[in-house]
């Protein structure tokens, strides 16, 4: 070890630990951040494409911190390191994957007598902006534990009652968010989602019950929170948020709580909030880890705090960061993060406490460790930089690479699950290769050979170069990537991708098969 090399610790987030043998803390010898990553990826070559681009530079959807400072606020990759320093890798995490269900819009206008009274009071307050709503005796008793907090008292409760909050997404994060904001007495709660309740939601989405399976989430959620607090106004938006409707929907709310589960919608929510001047309370989850911050907060002098684009200017390429549907999430984690989100919303509205502005909180529930990192404005932010380049909403699917403008040059041969069933019952059944993870295989499988995607190149001998070989995963995305690799790099010409993966098999061939 040279005199200027030091032992430093790199903290590996859970989405990347499969490339480090499951290790969450790696000691390397380095004198700068860039040399630390060179040594880290030399030790774990499979990690390299996930943290470095083709030019060897850190990928933009990762943030790297030295202590609690973003290295971009220091000397970037050439930031000097000292003995015992800790470097953290903070990735963008999606938090889940959206289900492709109907996005039909509906408007639920029923309300309780208490909600009707609350609405009329808010209408009166709107006509007189200096006035805050009053309370009935029943409301005073309900919120009494808030009212006796000296810093909060009845003024904080009045601000809650006068506020309008939109919760985007009623999944793992949205469930506790809605319950605690309703219980706290937020006067108008908007619920936006286009999904339906499914069995696998109930592991973490405690807003719903078995009886709700098959119902639109917004309807089940509205019924639940109206039962929890009849004195608030509940507004239902049964629709998918898009660049065409986002500004109109968000415009009527004071605070937006981001409970989304995919990158296109997350960037859409952020950009709409910036363009409209709305506060965006953000959280995301993956396996045992969560992130929390308050974006676009308006300070007393009229300036705004950092937003999501300051943290992650661009999204990761599709498939590089697994979703919760692929990587999983421990059921209690969204309950913890969603409750923390609700707390931030209450602080923003009431003015009590210090919101998580210009800071990013990280939670590792497996080790029960929390860290709070500094978040600064990025001068290259296309919305808020010195020379803004974006003044309207864009195509976020294309931005996130889901529907790229240029078609793929490589065409993967695919078959349907019905064709596979015919082939399997024929005289020469195909070889099945399952590229999912072992823990997924244990849930459901088609008796194929298990070769996880990350290990395919280590098991080329196990994949026949002749005869029909069908490659499958959960939904068909990972298997298509594997076939592309095997055909372009190793010359395979006998591979077929199973369209829709094992989910399609369960849906169309074997309804008794477990899905996840």
What report would you give on this structure?
- The chain has 516 residues and is of the alpha/beta class.
- It has 18 helices and 18 strands.
- The chain has helices at residues 33-43, 48-51, 113-127, 137-142, 144-147, 153-162, 174-184, 217-228, 246-250, 263-276, 308-311, 324-327, 332-350, 396-399, 417-424, 438-441, 477-490, 501-508, and strands at 6-11, 25-30, 62-66, 69-70, 86-91, 164-168, 188-193, 233-238, 255-258, 279-286, 289-295, 359-364, 369-374, 414-415, 431-434, 449-450, 469-472, 495-498.
- It has an eight-stranded mixed sheet, with helices on both faces. Strands 2-1-5-3-4 form a five-stranded mixed sheet, with helices on one face. A five-stranded parallel sheet has the order 14-18-17-15-16.
- Strand 6 (164-168), helix 7 (174-184) and strand 7 form a beta-alpha-beta unit.
- Helix 7 crosses helix 13.
- The longest helix is centred in the middle third of the chain and has 19 residues, at 332-350.
- The model is unreliable at 96-113 (pLDDT under 50).
């Amino acid at each position: 070890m040279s005199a200027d090399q030091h032992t430093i610790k790199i903290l590996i987030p859970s989405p990347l630990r499969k490339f480090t043998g499951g290790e969450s803390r790696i000691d390397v010898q380095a004198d700068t951040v860039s040399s630390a990553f060179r040594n880290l990826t030399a030790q774990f070559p499979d990690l390299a494409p996930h943290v470095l681009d083709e030019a060897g530079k850190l990928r933009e959807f990762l943030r790297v911190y030295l202590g609690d400072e973003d290295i971009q606020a220091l000397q970037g990759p050439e930031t000097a390191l000292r003995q015992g320093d800790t470097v953290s890798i903070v990735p963008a995490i999606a938090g889940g994957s959206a289900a492709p269900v109907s996005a039909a819009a509906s408007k639920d206008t029923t309300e309780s007598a208490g909600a009707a009274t609350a609405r009329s009071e808010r209408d009166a307050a709107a006509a007189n902006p200096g006035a805050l709503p009053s309370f009935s005796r029943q409301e005073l008793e309900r919120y009494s534990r808030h009212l006796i907090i000296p810093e909060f008292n009845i003024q904080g409760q009045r601000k809650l009652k006068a506020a309008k909050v939109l919760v985007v997404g009623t999944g793992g994060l949205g469930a506790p968010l809605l319950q605690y904001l309703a219980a706290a007495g937020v006067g108008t709660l908007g619920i936006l989602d286009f999904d339906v309740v499914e069995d696998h939601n109930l592991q973490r989405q405690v807003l719903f019950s078995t009886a709700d399976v098959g119902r639109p989430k917004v309807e089940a959620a509205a019924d639940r929170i109206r039962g929890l607090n009849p004195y608030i106004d509940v507004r239902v938006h049964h629709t998918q948020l898009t660049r065409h409707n986002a500004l109109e929907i968000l415009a009527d709310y004071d605070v937006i709580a981001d409970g989304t589960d995919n990158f296109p919608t997350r960037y859409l929510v952020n950009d709409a909030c910036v363009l409209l001047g709305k506060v965006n309370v953000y959280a995301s989850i993956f396996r045992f880890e969560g992130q929390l911050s308050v974006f676009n907060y308006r300070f007393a002098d009229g300036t705004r705090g950092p937003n999501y684009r300051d943290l992650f200017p661009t999204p990761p390429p599709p498939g590089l960061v697994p979703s919760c549907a692929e990587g999983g999430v421990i059921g209690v984690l969204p309950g913890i993060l969603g409750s923390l989100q609700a707390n931030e919303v209450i602080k923003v509205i009431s003015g009590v406490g210090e919101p998580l502005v210009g800071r990013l909180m990280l939670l590792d529930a497996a080790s029960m460790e929390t860290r709070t990192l500094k978040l600064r404005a990025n001068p290259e932010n296309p919305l808020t930089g010195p020379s803004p380049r974006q003044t309207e909403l864009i195509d976020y699917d294309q931005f996130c690479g889901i529907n790229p403008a240029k078609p793929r040059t490589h065409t993967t041969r695919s078959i349907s699950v019905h064709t596979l069933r015919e082939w399997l019952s024929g005289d020469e059944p195909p070889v099945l290769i399952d590229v999912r993870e072992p823990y997924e295989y244990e849930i459901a499988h088609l008796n194929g050979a298990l070769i996880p995607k990350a290990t395919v190149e280590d098991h080329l001998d196990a994949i026949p170069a002749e005869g029909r070989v069908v490659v499958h995963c959960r939904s068909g995305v990972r298997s298509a990537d594997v076939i592309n690799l095997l055909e372009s790099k190793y010359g395979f010409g006998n591979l077929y991708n199973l369209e829709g993966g094992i989910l399609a098999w369960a849906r169309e061939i074997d309804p008794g098969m477990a899905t996840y």
